[in-house]
């Protein structure tokens, strides 16, 4: 099985974003959400690395985070952090590793 490096990178981006939000703004909610979504994305990437058909955790994480950050971006029109996070997962699909991941683009965004 191929290692889902893009998924691991996305999980690291989410986690680091939550930590940066806490350090810069003192937002405990950013820290908690970043850690929760980061861990979920890491678990999804790990499952997809073991079995490329096991997409459900990754799909649920990317879909909910894309929807949440997409709504935040549309209400504020600020690139950081909502636009970046909504677009980061879209950038992942420019180079789709798995066929089923493409569903997330059409289904959730």
Automatic annotation (TrEMBL):
A GO term from the CC aspect: mitochondrial membrane
UniProt subcellular location: Membrane
Membrane topology: Multi-pass membrane protein
Chain's role: Required for normal heme biosynthesis.
Membrane-spanning intervals of the chain: 6-23, 30-49, 55-74, 86-108
InterPro entries in the cross-refs: TMEM14 (IPR005349), TMEM14_sf (IPR044890)
A single GO BP: regulation of heme biosynthetic process
Superkingdom assignment: Eukaryota
Protein name according to UniProt: Transmembrane protein 14C
Main location: membrane
Similarity comment: Belongs to the TMEM14 family.
Record keywords: Heme biosynthesis, Membrane, Transmembrane, Transmembrane helix
